[in-house]
């Protein structure tokens, strides 16, 4: 009895301090439907586009606020405020469109490549970066190849950093 108490005192404290093992919990039908919905490429792309647009609005507000009017000395305070507000609005819309398109294209390309390859690795992100860079540069003509290289290079740097 004394040996059992000594053994319990020596090793029993560590075992008594461990957190109890909780049983596995199966996902609910609602959680399963939510996961299936997020595995849909169209849903994922639209969601990325909307979030990219929101980020673009914030970036536009920030960068629009940093711009000073050329004739600031000659403008009244009210004119400067009106100019600044218009500039922030223009920048917000421009950045929102660009970020929304980038998010939509990148997410769609990555999802399609991932489903086609049946793998989740860095290659999917590199290809999606290439497609996004190429698509954004395509409006300038045959320079889309350079956009592809820049997009995939930037994507690999970002993915490698994280």
From TrEMBL:
Belongs to the Tim17/Tim22/Tim23 family. The chain crosses the membrane at residues 42-66. It is a multi-pass membrane protein. GO terms for molecular function: mitochondrion targeting sequence binding; protein transmembrane transporter activity. GO terms for cellular component: TIM22 mitochondrial import inner membrane insertion complex. Coiled coil: none annotated. It is found in: Mitochondrion inner membrane. PANTHER family: MITOCHONDRIAL IMPORT INNER MEMBRANE TRANSLOCASE SUBUNIT TIM22. Keywords: Membrane, Mitochondrion, Mitochondrion inner membrane, Transmembrane, Transmembrane helix. It comes from the Eukaryota. InterPro entries: TIM22. It comes from Aegilops tauschii subsp. strangulata (Goatgrass). It holds the Pfam family Tim17. The keyword Mitochondrion applies. One of its GO terms (biological process) is protein insertion into mitochondrial inner membrane. This is Mitochondrial import inner membrane translocase subunit TIM22.
């Amino acid at each position: 009895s004394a040996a059992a108490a000594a053994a319990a005192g020596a090793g029993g404290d560590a075992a008594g301090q461990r957190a109890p093992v909780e049983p596995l919990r199966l996902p609910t039908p609602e959680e399963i439907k939510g996961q299936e919905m997020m595995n849909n490429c169209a849903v994922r792309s639209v969601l990325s586009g909307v979030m990219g647009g929101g980020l673009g609005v914030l970036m536009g507000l920030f960068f629009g606020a940093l711009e000073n009017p050329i004739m600031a000395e000659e403008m009244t305070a009210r004119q400067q405020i009106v100019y600044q507000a218009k500039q922030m609005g223009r920048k917000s819309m421009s950045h929102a469109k660009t970020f929304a398109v980038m998010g939509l294209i990148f997410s769609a390309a990555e999802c399609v490549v991932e489903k086609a390859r049946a793998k989740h690795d860095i290659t999917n992100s590199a290809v999606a970066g290439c497609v996004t860079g190429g698509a954004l540069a395509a409006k300038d003509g045959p320079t889309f190849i350079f956009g592809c290289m820049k997009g995939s290079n930037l994507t690999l740097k970002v993915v490698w950093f994280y």
